[in-house]
Every structure is written in C-alpha cells, then in structure tokens.
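Sanity check

After download, print the first record. It should look like this:
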Amino acid sequence: MDNRYVQQFKKGSLEMILLCLIGRKETYGYEMITELNGSASVLGYAKEGTIYPILYRLQEANLIQCRLAHAAANGGSKKYYSLTDHGKEVLEELIAFWSNYENCVNGFIDSYNKRDGLK
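Expected structure tokens:
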C-alpha cells in the first residue's frame, strides 16, 4: 500500500486527537506523545517536531491554553495544556463531523464490499 495515503489520513485527524487528549484532562506535550506512541501500530510514532507545531497552532486559534508549572524532575517548567471554551465547542463540532464522515465512508465501503455479491 502507498504510505502517503495513510499519512494523509493521520495528518488530517491529529489535531482532533490532540484536542481529545487535552479535553480529557490538563496535560503536557511529552505525556501526549507517550500516549500517542502507545497507539503507534495505527497512528505511527509521534515526534516532538510534529506535535508541538500543532499545539502552537491550536493555541493561536484559541482552542487550547497553556500554563507553566514547576517541573520537579529537572527544576525547569512544563507547559500544561487545557481546552478553552471555544476549543470545547470546536471539538464537539469536529466529533459530530467525524461521526457523519465515518458513516458516509463506511457506506461507500459497504457498497464496494457488496459489489457482485462478494459479501
């Protein structure tokens, strides 16, 4: 299979996935990367160079906000991300769209699978 098609699917859904992770609880970048990498068999491995630019875009769009907190491990600070009210609204819209999109795509897949009485 041509990997570029799979990459496009992943790229298109990553912002929504990050919003879902942040919407569950306040979280920080490395924690999100670790969770995404736990699903690596489907999503592939998340890298800082992919995740952080998306987080910056989401913040600029006022979908997420961050706060700095002291990091006990290294004495520095961590950025904790949470959804804004606007981010919650947009995430709900994205989830509704995804559900409709999934149903539409599945309809095409089902009709493909039923062609010539195959299934």
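If your output differs, re-run the checksum step. Summary of this record's structure: Residues 85-113 form the longest helix (29 residues).
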